[in-house]
Amino acid sequence: MNTMIGCAQSLIIDIGYPEYGATINPTKSLTNFECDVSGISIQSIGNSHEFPYCGFTIDTRTLEIRKDLTRFSTRASRDIINVEYCRRPNHAFAKKMSSLMAFLFNKYLADSDLNSKHTILQNLYRTFVDIGIRFVFYAKFLRRHRAVTQDWLQYVIIRILSVANERLQLYTVNIDIEESKAIGYRALLIVLSRKPAGYQNLIVWLNQRWSRIESRYQALAQCISKDNMSEIIVKSM
């Protein structure tokens, strides 16, 4: 951020919007440079280049946008899941997971005009980790009232992968379908392996799919999966 623009914003924080009776609390503000307002030191991101904003981080050097999982809570994800016990609960499960993928993997994360290929794939990986955790919790709650077959779980995953590919084709120009599948298989395998009970057949099926393309995309998937942020989230399950 340009320092002059930052100083102007600091003045706005100091003055607020008196015509609307609105003030801005400097103790809840954040900048990427050192700044004082009315003797109060505004919190800064320090030496970091990742500026947090509404579930994303903005790289202050390149302006690339990444999915931010630092405030992700597996407990919160579990608590906010709304499991539909309707006439066709399995169909509702598939629809909800597909809709979540479309919502979570949005233009800001997938747009090649904003982000490099590596950043887009990292965003995709983090989104698959997020979806995978919600997938596990939803299936767990659904099984208490209705049997969910392995074939149906496979169908749900295929739907999720399909939606991810649709988003990539809509916003990205340099990533093919097989690359996104490799990332999806890798992420979902890591998540499901943390809670393998009841998913043994599904894990075998994912491993079979992954093994078909592993030789081409192993280095890519391993590079993306060495994402400290995602590793911490998965271990907290």
List keywords for this structure.
two-stranded parallel ribbon, mainly alpha, about 240 residues, 7 strands, globular, 3-stranded antiparallel sheet
How are the SSEs ordered, and which strands pair?
Layout: H1 3-15, E1 30-31, E2 36-37, E3 40-41, E4 43-44, E5 50-53, E6 56-59, E7 65-67, H2 74-79, H3 89-104, H4 107-110, H5 117-143, H6 150-171, H7 177-194, H8 200-225, H9 228-235
Could you explain the architecture of this structure?
With 237 residues, the chain is mostly helical. The chain has 9 helices and 7 strands.
- Strands across the major sheet, in which order? 5-6-7
Question: Low-confidence spans: pLDDT under 50, at least 5 residues?
Answer: none
Determine the N-to-C terminus distance.
37 Å
Main structural class? mainly alpha
Shape: globular
Q: Note the main sheet.
A: 3 strands, antiparallel
What is the tally of beta strands? Answer: 7
Helix content: 55-70%
- H/E element sequence: HEEEEEEEHHHHHHHH
- Give the strand content: 5-15%
User: If helices are DSSP runs of H or I spanning 4 or more residues, what is the number of helices?
Assistant: 9
Q: Tell me the radius of gyration.
A: 21 Å
Mean pLDDT: 80
